[in-house]
Amino acid sequence: METEKVVAFEMKAEIVKQMLQQPRFNLDEAVNTFCKISCNAHAIVDIDMEPLGTGLYPVLSIINHSCLPNAVLVFEGKLAVLRALLPVGKGDEVLISYIDLCQTTRDRWDDLNAKYHFICSCRRCCKFDKIDDQILDALRCKHGKCDGFLVDKQGFYSRDLKLECSKCGHVRTSEAEKRAKKKLEPLLDRAGSYLDNLNYEGALSTYKKIEAATLDLFHPSSLSVMLVRKLLTKLHMETGDIQAALECCRLITPVRERLLQRNDPVLGRHYYLRGKLEGVKGDKEDGRDYLIRARDILEITHGTNFPLVTELLHCERILGHLGQGTSGRP
Q1: Which of 98, 196, 205, 299 is deepest in the core (most CB within 10 A)?
Q2: pLDDT in tens, 241-252
């Protein structure tokens, strides 16, 4: 474990000692306990995979990670439920994901290394040398009039890697990536301030500028662009522009499908939103299709008794209710 983390845990242990005023309090044991919790605890998340808290489940902590899991851990309150995403044969290892899988390979590795101190070598991670995978966080070349994208053609990951244009062959270091992302920071800070103050109109205006700047820097199918459009979808819904929300949601769908497995609950939740938006402002048949896709996934990941799955068993009723709405908002 990194020295910085151990130091932080030592500081926490000292605070606990001062609070408890226990003369026999063992600082070393406390630090060791913090380390164990850090590596073995699970984030308790809701249907949108937003964190609600942290839980320690000793039996579930022995299950290994994969970026191509065959099982998923979901929560019903504090109860952790393990469900199979795919048929698991006798003798097959059950694997779950410890992290958000809607990330690039580099970011998944960074996330795993920071939280669990290992780098994954599953089949998905071994595909990093494929240029198609790297498009998810590829920068535009912009060498002269070149409209190509910078990728790591060496097939290995390093923060000091050299990026080569897939079209003209121009080479740049990863410092170019850092400088490019730094240009977005003032806009992101401003948008964050608007959101903190619930100024959705201001946030929407700023995120439109962020979307344009992100498209200028990255591949249009990149994760960076998708994350901006995810926020824009929510902001358009908050400000009542359901048509614009639907258009953003439609652009997100292929990137979600590219990043996530067929039965991933995050994909199921996205299909649910897409279906409802289509039901209000788009094609009713498409709306029905996406709601059915959402139901098929969430029925596997959350079970038939989950409230959202129960609702999705009646797609026609959902579409009918949306059609009767006066505001046009899902």
Answers
A1: 98
A2: 999 999 999 999
* DSSP assignment of 28-89: HHHHHHHHHHHHH-EEEE-TT--EEEEE--TTGGGSEE-SS-SEEEEEETTEEEEEESS---
Whole-number Å distance between alpha carbons of 268 and 291: 9
pTM above 0.90, yes or no: no
| Bridging pattern class, strands 64-65 and 95-96 | parallel
| Residues 117-141: tens digit of each pLDDT | 888 999 888 876 565 566 777 788 8
The conformational region for residue 145 under phi > 0 = left, psi -120 to 50 = alpha, else beta, is alpha
- Which of 181, 121, 193 is closest to 157 using CA atoms? 121
Q: What is the CATH number of domain 3-116?
A: 2.170.270.10
- The mean pLDDT of the chain is 83
Helices 265-281/284-302 angle, 10° precision: 160
Domain 183-259 listed as CATH 1.25.40: yes
Amino acid letter, residue 306: F
Every domain of the chain and the residues it spans: 3-116, 130-173, 183-259, 262-330
Tokens representing 303 are 């079970």
Beta strands at 139-140 and 95-96: parallel, antiparallel or unpaired: unpaired
